[in-house]
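User: I'm putting together notes for a lab meeting next week and I want to include a structural view of one of the chains we've been expressing. I don't have a solved structure, so I'd like a prediction I can at least talk through. The sequence is below, exactly as it appears in our construct file.
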Amino acid sequence: MSMQPKQRLDRIDIGILNQLQQNARITNSELARAVNLSPTPCFNRVRALEKAGLFRQHVTLLSPEALGLSINVFIQVSLEKQVKDALARFEQAISERPEVMECYLMTGDADYLLRVVLPDVAALERFILERLTKMPGVSNIRSSFALKQVRYKTALPLPASGLTLPEPKHDEDDWT
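Assistant: Thanks for the context. Below is the predicted structure for the 176-residue chain, given as structure tokens.
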């Protein structure tokens, strides 16, 4: 196995990433101007960052309120058993629900934390009674309404001075 040096992102790379996190539709010319590069080196850096696996995807963020999705609910879900098969069944079932925006396997009291977006309380009631309670292995559900979104962001925090990327993770589990 050959050892490759860790990749270092400099201030320009960080600037490019920050600009793209704010506006993925920025043109290469605008991006180059924003980070004080000429267009060709800027384009090459973006491609190198992409090749390094730093971009998960390019998306358009829609306004839930403008679309009538005014209910934002956090739901804690506990399963009867926290065994691999039960977790996999629940995760498969929850991944098929379009109103579930986020789902996390958690430590603590609940097994999962969901963020669900819906148009109204009646839709939430239907989701819980007709969908969530019927999912395999669900034993307890606790909901909390978000009264106000104080902060929401999609841009990751990046150090302005640059950073060294961590080693890629391998699928192998060295601990067992």
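A couple of points you could mention at the meeting. The helical segments are 11-22, 28-34, 39-51, 84-95, 121-131. The chain is about 30% helix and 20% strand.

User: Perfect, that's what I needed.
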